[in-house]
Amino acid sequence: MACSSAAPKFLVRRRPAVLVAPAAPTPRELKRLSDFDEQVGLRFQISNLHFYRRDESMGGKDPAWVIREALANALVHYYPFAGRLREHDGCRLAVDCTGEGVLFVKADAEVGLEHFDNPLLPPFPCREELIFDVPGSSAILNTPLLLFQVTRLACGGFILGVRLNHTMADAQGLTQFLGAVAELARGAHAPSVLPVWKRELLEGRNQQQPALVHDKLGELPLHLQKRATKFDTISSWIWKFRNVALAPDPDGVMVPMVVVNARGRNTAGVGIPIGYYGNAFLCPVAISTAGELSTNPLSYAIELVKKAKNQVDMEYMRSTADLIVLRRGQSTRIIAGMYSLADARRARFQDLDFGWGKPLVSFLLPYKNTNGEDGIVVPMCLPGPAMDRLVEEMSKLLHQPHVFPVKRSAL
């Protein structure tokens, strides 16, 4: 099928989708998801793309065959992915570990990597063809939990597209699974990190009183309050630029939700174990009026972003799970000026090597510009007029060192 007229045209020929089952027998059981996994806001499909060059050392091996075989072997260890999501006890979600398998599509495109932008940056032409929505596969319940598409290119490289039912895993959990597939594709006998289910760690405690989710900034050591990470700084710039672009009422509230991974954030020796691949992130909020955000220096926004991030530890996670239980069935309140900020670099998609080396680029990841300099891709979605103002404001920085161009999408 050819791309639409809105993007450079090339033909993608796909074989019929097949199911890839675990390469060996797996347990037949029902495994409950956590209260974090079950959130209404996670009941959707997420996808990403990974671009790989031709590698002469692979001796002409077919990447589709290599990845398919490794996928079947990885599913022996990660067998819940080969099952189907069901509802039980009302609206609770659980994986029926049927071993049916995940969807796999083999495809070919009549273009090489040179057909795409240099450097490779999202959005990519014909993205919907590179990770095709197999009819009937996108429902949350009773459908395959993963979809793989390997598109071989005329230059000998290939593009791997992966789609995941988000209730099953977050970005780091998906990378852990794909890392297992990559290791097996390179000849390993077993994954170096074995999967851990233990979704009960993030179960609510069915408290009758309101859950305790409190501000922990005052409890933090002084050096943690002073240190600003690259994410803090970039997020704060985005917050200020976005504020200028939208031109809201000065008294309007601008609320970024900061995605924070809870792994490694222990409380009293209790934390998320290595190998856990469920959803283990929170979205605490930073809050400011538009006027204060505009008139204050960048350090003002940075401190608010840090304050939101630094609240998160295991007790904060458990308290949030309590709150999820108390509000089960209620819709999430969304206010004007609210959006989310996430650092996808931490998921390490850029390290996935299936035998052809690391990807040239993966969606929402660091990249190198045409001069070989490191950069960070920051996708944003805004209304057309606001995007025009954003491009204008960011263009003022282009004459400063280490500031990279804005790529605007018509999508």
TrEMBL record:
Pfam families named in the record: Transferase
Q: Which GO terms describe its molecular function?
A: acyltransferase activity, transferring groups other than amino-acyl groups
Give the family from UniProt: Belongs to the plant acyltransferase family.
Q: Which UniProt keywords apply?
A: Transferase
**Coiled-coil regions, chain positions:** none
* Organism, scientific name: Panicum virgatum
Please state what the protein is called: Benzyl alcohol O-benzoyltransferase
Alphabetized InterPro entries for the sequence: CAT-like_dom_sf, Plant_acyltransferase
Determine the domain of life of the protein's source. Answer: Eukaryota
